[in-house]
Design goal:
By secondary structure, the chain is mostly helical. The protein has one domain. Helices cover about 60% and strands about 5% of the residues. The protein contains 7 helices and 2 strands. The chain is globular, with a radius of gyration of 17 Å. The chain starts with 6 loop residues before the first helix and ends in a 7-residue tail after the last helix. The relative contact order is 0.18.
């Protein structure tokens, strides 16, 4: 799952007294920010293995820290603590932490077995990446349903909603249909960082025009 990870961020951002939408967009992909950072440092590993699933050639064979349930909870707790330190708002901190942890739960639905509970086997994953006719509408439906929910609650400027929607759709189209590099390089992480930052910037821009309360 890619843009679907921002669906919880958008849904939570529709609520009163939620953290800012840019904060929540970081939360939604924080686990992958961590993974691609660890990949650069050689702490976690992936390789390109065509055919490992019908939709995604990434063989995520070693990611015990970011993509274990325990690791995701640690990331969520740390991020929630940062939000609390910045805002002194307990509910905002809890919501931000929950969005971080939602990443693992959504990955569980689509990944082939490569997730863990605490870094060691058994490896888990329901494998919806092997069923594009189910995964693709599910991801789009979650994401744009949540965007509609946010827009209905917060009333941001329509052109800014459309820009965010276009950015998300473009990123997902590249993810699904773009060419795949034959091997993992530093550019793999840098490209991921660029995509996450672009979506977060578009969400922040949209949020600047939104109503203060819902």
């Amino acid at each position: 799952m890619f843009i679907g990870h921002w669906a919880p961020a958008l849904a939570v951002a529709a609520k009163r007294k939620s953290p800012g939408i840019a904060t929540l967009f970081v939360a939604g992909q924080l686990v992958d920010w961590g993974f691609f950072g660890f990949l650069l440092l050689g702490i976690e590993h992936m390789r390109v293995t065509p055919g490992i699933s019908a939709m995604n050639p990434m063989d995520l064979y070693h990611m015990p820290y970011t993509h274990s349930l325990l690791g995701s909870v640690v990331f969520g707790a740390a991020f929630g603590a940062l939000v609390w330190a910045a805002t002194k708002d307990r509910m905002a901190a809890l919501l931000a932490g929950a969005v971080v942890v939602s990443h693992w739960l959504l990955d569980l639905v689509v990944h082939v077995p490569d997730l863990t509970l605490a870094g060691s086997p058994p490896k888990l994953g329901l494998g919806l990446w092997n069923h594009p006719a189910l995964e693709m509408p599910l991801e789009l439906g979650l994401t744009f349903g949540a965007l509609w929910l946010y827009a209905a609650a917060r009333k941001p400027a329509l052109p800014r909603v459309l820009v965010l929607g276009a950015v998300l759709l473009l990123l997902q189209a590249i993810n699904w249909f773009g060419s795949v590099e034959p091997e993992v390089t530093a550019g793999t992480s840098l490209l991921a960082f660029f995509a996450y930052a672009l979506a977060t910037l578009a969400a922040w821009w949209m949020g600047k025009s939104a109503a203060v309360s819902a």
